[in-house]
Amino acid sequence: MRKIDVWFGKAGEPVPVVDVADIKVMWAFCQDLKAQHPEGVAVEVDIWKRLCSPGADIRAVSYRCQMLGLLEMMLRAAWTGGELSVTAFKVAARMDLHWMAVGVAQNGFPFSLEGFLAEVQREAA
After folding, report:
1. Which has the closest alpha carbon to 95: 109, 121, 115, 124?
2. How many of the other CB atoms lie within 10 Å of CB of 79?
3. Looking at residue 108, what is its pLDDT?
4. Which residue, 94, 101, 106, 90, is CA-closest to 13?
5. pTM of structure
């Protein structure tokens, strides 16, 4: 197994649904780290295991947080600032998402952007 395979599932397979609390705690921790270390810093998996709920799928939580970060970056032009809504975290925790192949150029998101936004809007209403 290549080292990178430890952090990603098999390309094309669904990413497991995770607890929204785990996404929120990982997101908040990462935001704090970015503020303290704008040049970047690595986090050992044992830290994630302590922060997330017992038995949490750290790979899936991390991947889903990465997708939220990608959304934030891509939608920055329309971003109004502030925090992501609780609804955005809830939808990100359960949205249909597939692992991407490592080192392979992607055409679009590994999920439906329109579906994500529609679900956030539906749940917020």
Report:
1. 115
2. 12
3. 80
4. 101
5. 0.77
Local structure of 14: helix, strand or coil: strand
How many residues in total does the chain contain?
A: 125
**Helical packing angle, 58-74 and 86-94, nearest 10°:** 130
Cβ(99)–Cβ(13) below 8 Å: yes
Three-point CA angle 92, 15, 72, nearest 5°: 35
Under-50 pLDDT residues of the chain: 1-5, 77
- Give CA–CA dist 19/56, Å, rounded: 8
CA 89 to chain centroid = 9
User: What pLDDT is stored for residue 77 in this prediction?
Assistant: 47
Say what angle helices 58-74 and 20-36 make with each other, to 10 degrees: 60
Quick count: other Cβ atoms within 10 Å of Cβ 90?
A: 17
Question: Could you give the C-alpha distances from 124 to 2, 89, 95, in angstroms and in order?
Answer: 41, 12, 15
Closest CA to 115 of 87, 88, 95: 95
